[in-house]
Amino acid sequence: MKCDKESLLLYAVTDRRWLGSDTLPGQVEEAIKGGVTFVQLREKNLDEGQFLREAKELQQLCRRYGVPFVINDNVEIAASIGADGVHVGQSDMEAGDVRERLGPDKIIGVSAQTVEQALLAEERGADYLGVGAVFSTGSKADAVEVGHDTLKDICRAVKIPVIAIGGINQDNIGSLTGSGICGVAVISAIFGAGDIEEATRELKAAAGKMVEA
After folding, report:
1. For residue 24, is it within any domain?
2. What pLDDT, in 10s, does the model give residues 16-59?
3. Which residues are catalytic?
4. What is the DSSP string of 25-63?
5. Could you tell me the pTM of the whole model?
6. Is 153 assigned a ligand-binding role in the annotation?
7. 1 found inside a domain
């Protein structure tokens, strides 16, 4: 599965806090129907067995729709099911080691908050960068806010695609216009919505306008 700017336009990161009576595959399918172009499974509190079952289920779903599917942090589960790739943070496995474990054809995303981190990730083989938090967010307790000037500096410094993450929603996405990003990663603005499919459709349209402006 390829990782290009088009596939990174609207990147959904899962969060089971928004499940209610729904299932994660059910929510993800709604998001894909609404236009999500990339899916990341993020689980911090599931045991390995549950995580593995969930990863396989979402992988099958994403394959059916032709949407890239990566796993946050857990390189071993990604390797065991042949996921399209992995997204790692600054405190997770280093990008070069992930590349060595997964091979040349898998997608590797890296979180970055500074130009230095971004350049190092690119040098070590990252395919894309997730930069943020660009707005305050309740989805990630340890999120560090990244100013829009830093976001622009990172986009100028690297050749690989950059997406913004952190507190992005329909009301503030327009303020990222001109930053150089090729897309946005979203959690609550999709999975916390009453109508996930419609919210996704609206966000994708807004993301497209923001990127093209």
Report:
1. yes
2. 998 988 999 999 999 999 999 999 999 988 999 999 999 999 99
3. 42, 111, 140
4. HHHHHHHHHHT--EEEE--SSS-HHHHHHHHHHHHHHHH
5. 0.97
6. no
7. no
